[in-house]
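Sorry to interrupt, but I need a hand with the structure work. Go ahead and set the record down below:
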Amino acid sequence: MSLDAIAAADSAAAHARWRQRRRARAARLVVVFFGFVLLLDALLGDQSLFATIKSRENLRRTAQALAALKDENSALRAKAYRLREDPATLELVARQELGLARPGEILIILSDAK
């Protein structure tokens, strides 16, 4: 084989290696680009990490509000039951809120003079 043939073969092989490295670099850039796009979508998209965290916080606040309303509802049910069934509670409310008195009692109302 002549030196020109060897040089040509080396040149062709070097060119092939250069093309292969260039393709590999382009492939890496494409993979990195799509990875970056997927990362942005995971962080900022409609069903992203931030949206999930916000939804969980909203769920937590709503659950707390629901628990508070259930407690208030339970207390109101208990008060309504006592007003229906307990004469002493009914009398207490009548005296405090309506200013009623039993027959024969004298009701004295004091008010702050300013």
DSSP finds three helices and no strands in the chain. Residues 3-44 form the longest helix (42 residues). The helical segments are 3-44, 49-85, 87-98. The two ends are 123 Å apart (CA to CA).
